[in-house]
Amino acid sequence: xxxxxxxxxxxxxxxxxxxxxxxxxxxxxxxxxxxxxxxxxxxxxxxxxxxxxxxxxxxxxxxxxxxxxxxxxxxxxxxxxxxxxxxxxxxxxxxxxxxxxxxxxxxxxxxxxxxxxxxxxxxxxxxxxxxxxxxxxxxxxxxxxxxxxxxxxxxxxxxxxxxxxxxxxxxxxxxxxxxxxxxxxxxxxxxxxxxxxxxxxxxxxxxxxxxxxxxxxxxxxxxxxxxxxxxxxxxxxxxxxxxxxxxxxxxxxxxxxxxxxxxxxxxxxxxxxxxxxxxxxxxxxxxxxxxxxxxxxxxxxxxxxxxxxxxxxxxxxxxxxxxxxxxxxxxxxxxxxxxxxxxxxxxxxxxxxxxxxxxxxxxxxxxxxxxxxxxxxxx
Length: 379
What we know:
Blueprint: E1 3-4, E2 10-14, H1 21-26, E3 31-35, H2 38-43, H3 45-55, E4 58-61, H4 70-83, E5 87-92, H5 94-104, E6 109-113, E7 125-129, E8 135-140, E9 147-151, H6 152-157, H7 160-182, E10 204-205, H8 207-232, H9 238-258, H10 262-269, H11 281-295, H12 300-313, H13 329-339, H14 355-375
Parallel strand pairs: 1-10, 2-9, 3-4, 3-5, 5-6, 6-9
Antiparallel strand pairs: 7-8
Helix pairs in contact: 4-5, 7-8, 7-9, 7-11, 8-9, 10-11, 10-13, 11-12, 11-14, 13-14
EC number: 1.1.1.6
Family: Belongs to the iron-containing alcohol dehydrogenase family.
Binding site for NAD(+): 94-98, 123, 129
C-alpha cells in the first residue's frame, strides 16, 4: 500500500517576518522576480526595501495582471529569463501565488501570502484560467515551494473577511480527509508530476496527514473566534498565530496529503449558481461542508458543532448567505451533476455516489441552516 506526504521545504511564520525575505532570496542568489499585484507590493514596500538593503539583494517587479493565464505566466517567465533572476517570489493572494508556481515550475520558489484566506500556499499545484476568467486547467509541479513565509502583522492588517474565509476552507479539511481515509481512497495530489509511466497507482494519505487535518478542526474550535476578534482589531495574538498556521499550513498539508472529498466537489458544482460568484472560496466551502455532513448522515451533535462554529465567526450556513436566495431541485441537480463528474473528489466518500442524493443533501443542508437561524433568533 503506497502512502505519501507532501511538504514545502520550509515554513516560517511570525511578526515582521517579511524583513527576513532577503535572507531567503540570498540562499538562492542575488535577485528575485517578484510576482504580485502592484497594490500588494505598495502595501509592503517599506519592508521590501528594508530587507533588500539589509541582505544586498534585488527584487525585479514583474507585475501581475490579476489572472493566471498561459499568456501571463509565459510573459513572467520571459522576464525571469531575461533578467536571469535566481528565484521566484509569489506575494499576495491566491492568484499571484498560483502564477508564481507556474512561472517557477517547482524550482527556487518563495511564497509570501499577505492574507490567510485559503490553503494554497504550501501546495505543489496551481489553477490556470482563460482570459475571461473561466477555468482552463490544473498545473502540477515536481515539488512544493522551497519557502513559505508568513508575516502575521501583514495578515492582521488585512480585512477580517479573508481570515474568516480561510477558516471556512480549513473547516472542510478534517471532514474530507476523514472520508478519504475511511474509504481507502487514493490522493491524486500524491502522484509525481511530469511523466507517470511505470507508476502503478497513486498513493493514499498518511496517518500524519489525517492527524494534521484533525488538529486543523480542533484549532478552529478552540481559537477561531478569538483570532477573528484579534483580526478585527488588527493586532497579533497567539490565537491569531494559531489560526493563521491552521488556515495556511495545517489545512494546506491536510488537503494535499489527506485528500478532498464531497465538500470541495460541491463547491465546484456551485459555480453554476450566479448568485454565489461574488463570494470567496472559503465562504462557499463552509456551506458545502455542511452539505457533505448531510450527505454522509453525520452525527447530529457534530453537525450542530459545525453550525455553532460557523455562526460564531460569520461563515455561511445557508445558500442565501452566499447569494442564492432559493434553489429548486432542478438547480440543485445541476450543481450535483458537476460535483459528481468522474474526476471529482466526491468519489472519495466511503459510499457510492448518487447524483440525486447529492442534490437532496444540498437542499436539506440549506433547510438545516435556515432552521438553525430560526432556533437561534437570527432571522
